[in-house]
Amino acid sequence: MTKYVVSTTLKSVALWPVSILINRDVIAEVRKLKSQPGKNIIMDGSSVLLHSLIENDLVDEYMLHVYPLALGIGKRLFPAGKRVNLTLIESSALPTGVVYQRYKPA
Prior knowledge:
The protein has two helices and five strands. It has helices at 26-35, 47-55, and strands at residues 3-6, 19-22, 62-66, 86-93, 99-105. The strands form two sheets. Strands 3-5-4 form a three-stranded antiparallel sheet, with no helix packed on it. Strands 1-2 form a two-stranded parallel sheet.
């Protein structure tokens, strides 16, 4: 399975086997990946990248874990000013009290 690493600071992904670095024109590269046949693209770990993908309507599904805790601070999942209507696909409560939810853009 090929892994794509999006970074503007890394110069190489040689330490990660079967990885390809995307370091410019990320939106065009993601569009190109989405147009190819194959498996799902899963993104984890960057609110900046996620905001860019959401702003360009490149997210097909959101898989969220909602924890029973409110801190009152933190990063936003969605970019400010961007309205995203969602349709619930799946929801289940885990034994820990966390709720797993899957949404697709409406």
